[in-house]
Amino acid sequence: MPQKNAIEKSTLKILKYSVLLPILFLSAMNSEISAMNIILPDTFQNWKVSESVNLDDHDALYEYIDGGAEQFISYGYQHAVSKIYIKEGEPEVRVEIFDMGSSKNAYGIFSNIRYEENDEFGQGSQYVTGALFFWKSNYYISISTIEETMSSIKFIREMAKNILAQVPEKGPKPEILDILPEEGLDQNGILYFHHYIWLNSYFFISNDNILLINDDTDAVYAKYGTPENRLFLLVIDYKNEALLDKAYRSFVKHYLTVDITENIFQVEDNKWMALKSENNFLVLIFNGTNREEVENLLLKTTGNIQNNRK
């Protein structure tokens, strides 16, 4: 099939999942709820809890986030807690804590939602109008309000500090991130995943799982260059040679419409592309405007793979 042009993912879905979705609250209670090892108090700085939700399984998450649960489940969601805080004369504030089962999954869901990252809170955070979201250790946290006031903004920031104080230890990021060359890397354009549904996040490849990505594979997409001259790097760690070989053959069969005799080649839209297996990794580069830039990124990526596997 013909290759399609790069598609930049719209990441403004932050508010769709955290602020604007119609939420169904499953229970209302006044007792404290423990989200894993984190306690969300019933009162905090003169704000009081009006509604609480304890989400113990996938069905509860589907009911809580109608249309957005798959995003969290694809990253290994385990458990979540949500509380709404109210104060007279102020807009309500919703606090959500998601236990993603591992720090790499917590980073993954954050990387899927954020579009401009900073290190002000936790191990990575972003604040947009009315919403702060961040990750640390196994946890992804969202604190949001439908209206910003001086009081609600202060509450959001202080609640974030309260939560982080209860999670003293950091968690490791996915090891596959170490493969990414630093030169030209867009730090806000890194997406870690292990479910094929995110395969087309930055560049359309296929609606099917032609690269055989599953829960046991680690994958990272990264943007290089500028928006006007964008390279897309996809690295997948298959953990074993047999699955890697099968995925390589599947990609060649279902994606490429040109015969290839080397690792770097032109495709139908005159763009340059790279495809190479290295150890148990598959490296793909899309949307190159010339051979040299693709070759340079490929050499640095495979060099990092070799160095990390010594």
Can you describe this structure?
This protein has two domains: 14-165, Protein Transport Mog1p, Chain A (3-Layer(aba) Sandwich), CATH 3.40.1000; 175-308, 3-Layer(aba) Sandwich (Protein Transport Mog1p, Chain A), CATH 3.40.1000. Mean pLDDT is 88; it is low at 1-35. Strand 7 and strand 8 form a beta hairpin. The protein starts with 13 loop residues before the first helix and ends with a helix. The chain is elongated, with a radius of gyration of 21 Å. It is 25% helix and 30% strand. The protein has helices at 14-18, 58-64, 69-73, 103-113, 150-165, 241-254, 291-308; strands at residues 33-35, 38-40, 43-44, 47-55, 79-86, 93-99, 125-128, 131-136, 139-145, 185-193, 218-226, 229-237, 264-266, 272-278, 281-288. It has 310 residues and is an alpha+beta fold. The strands form three sheets. Strands 3-4-5-6-9-8-7 form a seven-stranded antiparallel beta sheet, sandwiched between helices. The protein has a six-stranded antiparallel beta sheet with strand order 10-11-12-15-14-13, sandwiched between helices. Strands 1-2 form a two-stranded antiparallel sheet.
Summarize the structure.
The protein has 310 residues and is an alpha+beta fold. Helix content is 25%, strand content 30%.
Give the topology.
Blueprint: H1 14-18, E1 33-35, E2 38-40, E3 43-44, E4 47-55, H2 58-64, H3 69-73, E5 79-86, E6 93-99, H4 103-113, E7 125-128, E8 131-136, E9 139-145, H5 150-165, E10 185-193, E11 218-226, E12 229-237, H6 241-254, E13 264-266, E14 272-278, E15 281-288, H7 291-308
Antiparallel strand pairs: 1-2, 3-4, 4-5, 5-6, 6-9, 7-8, 8-9, 10-11, 11-12, 12-15, 13-14, 14-15
